[in-house]
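User: Teach me something about this protein's shape.
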Amino acid sequence: MTASAHMATRAQAGGDGRRLWGVPIVVVFFFLGMVLPTAISVSAGGLRLSAYRVVLLVMFVPMLFTLISGKRGPLNIFDGFAIAHSVWALLALIKWGGLAQGVESGGIYIVEALGAYLVGRLYIRSVEDFNAMARAYVALVVGMLAFTIPEAVTGNHILKDGAASIFGGPRAHYIDKRMGLERAFGSFDHPILYGVFSASAFSMAYYICARATLTNFKGMALAMGVVVATFISASGGPYVVLLMQIFVAGYDRAMKGVTGRWRILFTLFGLLYLAIDLFSNRTPFHVFVSYFTFSAHSAYNRINIWIYGTAEVGRNPIFGIGLGDWIRAPWMSDSMDNFWLLITVRYGLPALFFLLALMLGLIIAAGRRKNLPKDWINARHAWAFTLFGISVAAATVHLWNALFVLFMFLVGSGAWLVDTNPRSPRAPAPRNFVRPIGRPQTLF
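Assistant: First, the predicted structure itself:
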């Protein structure tokens, strides 16, 4: 291979040489920005610029040019869904607040949603990139236990309150204990955020660090570290993220070698949904919330959120209500603990469609690929199972601040599974596999 060809294939895969522990340096700064406490931020023109927002703002325009250039994979239909979701949210916010307010609020949403997706899409371009990122992510979660275990035992919020003492800003607010433990914040704004951030690393610990081998004691120790980190958040949403990943990993292990095992699983899910709908005096959503929240009060509140939120969607189906207040019972708070519902209430059904089409489309396209090497299969499981866990839990929690950009990054970090070639990891996949925008090929 000539030097120029080698450089081209390195660019296609995002391998520009600027790495730390094997992780592209942009991804390193992005993760560090996510885990720095909110107190470490600046205000500019009424906007709070946290560390991860600064990273995304600095990189946004260069990433857009890189995406359009096709240097790291041709622009395709999934990129179109990501752009369409972000632009639709901008239009919804302009409709709500006028041009100036809408551009300010919608602009930062585009930077977070599309920007975080592009970090994953452009800088995780091979199985080596993904594995390095996964190991670093797991190490970060496990390393943070040095602060969060003492926090859960003593109630001293070391990272969050320490940053607030130095840089100013609010300290960790009081939350009642659960199971005799103080709920750990870590460096995040709420235990739910810390818990989901931690729980999302489980599949990566199991499939990448442990290689899906129970006798890989070092890897399984890291997976148990992720479990401990999730547990000390004492939050139902993170527990759902963790349990869903454990469930699908266990199912995959038990049914290995069975043809069509995922179709069987989804069929069983569909039949279970129909059975609950037919034979229960509650809707399937009510049953799900009742069993996956900590208390009857939490379940009741989330059911009411669903009732009033869906009514709001019915009144404003196209552009939503922007950042306006939603109609609800007088005794309910303005917090909407359902990410998917909140996206629809704020930005309308098209925004939800584009986001789901992006995530599910990538998962389906990656799942259709056959005869992949073992390390690719492990990476695909780690990525898809992580998104599955977060997506289920997102029906009972809202993904905000660092957690939202983490979710969008994770969606983008699996794009290489669709548009690169396992026989030559630095080469693109067959051109008829993913349709580049503007070309007449079919999606698959």
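Now, about its shape. The chain is about 65% helix and 5% strand. Confidence is low (pLDDT under 50) at residues 1-15, 438-444. If you'd like, I can walk through any region in more detail.
User: That's plenty for now, thanks!
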